[in-house]
Amino acid sequence: MPRRETPDIYDDLRARLIEGGFAPGRKLKPAELQQDYGCSTNTVRDVLLRLAAEGLAEFRDQRGFRMPERSAQKQHEVAQMRILLEQEGACLSLQYGGIDWEGRLTAVHHKLLHLEKRIRHHENPDSLVAHWLEAEEEFHQTLISACASDTLIGLHRQIYAQFRQQHVAVDRAFAFITENIAQHQAIVDAALEGDPGKVRSRIHAHLERNLSPQHPKVAELARRG
């Protein structure tokens, strides 16, 4: 196998961790993975350490690397954090973005809409999954891209990846796609209107299905209510 450069290994392994390439809880052994990439065990270990720092793998001394388990608590927490970051980033983008940002948002939404309509009418959408994941991420990154905060953008990238790892690999039937189409359109409409209140509420409406009623705090509030 041809030797691959470290950035390529990072990108490929990151995608596999996010998109369900490994079962939850599975051990990630550098000695096995290095055979996939034609590199040294130390190179794979360094990449896995970087991905563990991003929350996409787990590392413990003497026990090595593992895929994170999926849990209602983790799913709720990353969804909640993603909502907060996107709401704040989008509202800051309304303030600072201007017409150039509006144009970029409209363009990436057009591409995403095209893919989501194809998925809705496709009997076997598996061939479109990778393209949809890329377009959906690009849309949400563009939504916050004019926020004037590299820290917020970087944190959102990490949380978005953890969200994908916890949620998207679970639902390959795309039962949510029709709802997604309407919600993405509603977010764009609110952004183009320049209405921060609507932007916040529509981002929450788009992602609230991922907030788990099994989360301890949510369950406690439900019992009180």
Automatic annotation (TrEMBL):
| Keyword annotations of the record | DNA-binding, Transcription, Transcription regulation
| Gene3D superfamilies linked to this entry | GntR ligand-binding domain-like, Winged helix-like DNA-binding domain superfamily/Winged helix DNA-binding domain
Please name the InterPro entries in this protein's record: GntR_C (IPR011711), TF_FadR/GntR_C (IPR008920), Tscrpt_reg_HTH_GntR (IPR000524), WH-like_DNA-bd_sf (IPR036388), WH_DNA-bd_sf (IPR036390)
Could you confirm whether the keyword DNA-binding appears in this record? yes
Domain HTH gntR-type, residue spans: 3-70
Segments traversing the membrane: none
Q: Which organism is it from?
A: Litoreibacter ponti
What is the name listed in the Swiss-Prot or TrEMBL entry for this protein? GntR family transcriptional regulator
GO MF terms on file? DNA binding; DNA-binding transcription factor activity
